[in-house]
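sorry for the late reply, my laptop died twice this morning and i had to redo everyting from scratch. anyway the thing you sent over, i finally got around to it. pasting the sequence first so we're on the same page, its 199 residues, then the predicted structure underneath. double check i copied it right bc i was rushing
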Amino acid sequence: MIYASIETQKRHFRMKQDVYEHLAKTFLDKKKKQRPGKKIWIAAAAIVVALFLLLSITVALLTHKKLFSRSLYVLNSNVPTVIEYDFTSLGGSKTKAISFNLNNIDLSRYKFLDLSIRMQENSRVSSTVKVQIENSLLEKDTQYIPGINVRWQKISLPLANFKLIKDWSGVKSLAFIIEDWNVSIKKDSVIIDDIHFME
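ok and here's the structure:
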């Protein structure tokens, strides 16, 4: 009798233990499912970093759209270069120029000089601007940009047209020259922007 009672108690104890283990397992598994694991946090952090990098690259490309282009910029700003001239006075200078120091840069792989240009005042007769390039060997040549008026024009000058320059490995300067005899209005301004050399 006593033996049967002990066996019954043992059975009840085992059943309770099984129930407790089952409840504990169920409760702990539920808690584990509710908390994101370490792998989920790492994946989330990687996604955030990837999105940040993608956004940074997109902003860089949009704000500096020429970042990966094959061009070398002399002037690329929100403020164009303005060359004011006044040829109205007698005996005054008959030319006005602006020059960019190119520090003996190697332009041997570039093919074109590109820029945007216009006059300030509206005139029925267009004007002409002289472009001059000089290298470190003092080889110098010029080309003319005719037909400049009040509207922006994109100009592309082939460097091959500067025939007197034989060595492009050390280019010293780039100049834009306005000459009295080549402009329709004797007191005006020439506006130049987006100056760059293209391959």
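The chain has two domains: 2-63, 71-198.
thats about all i looked at so far, will dig more tmrw
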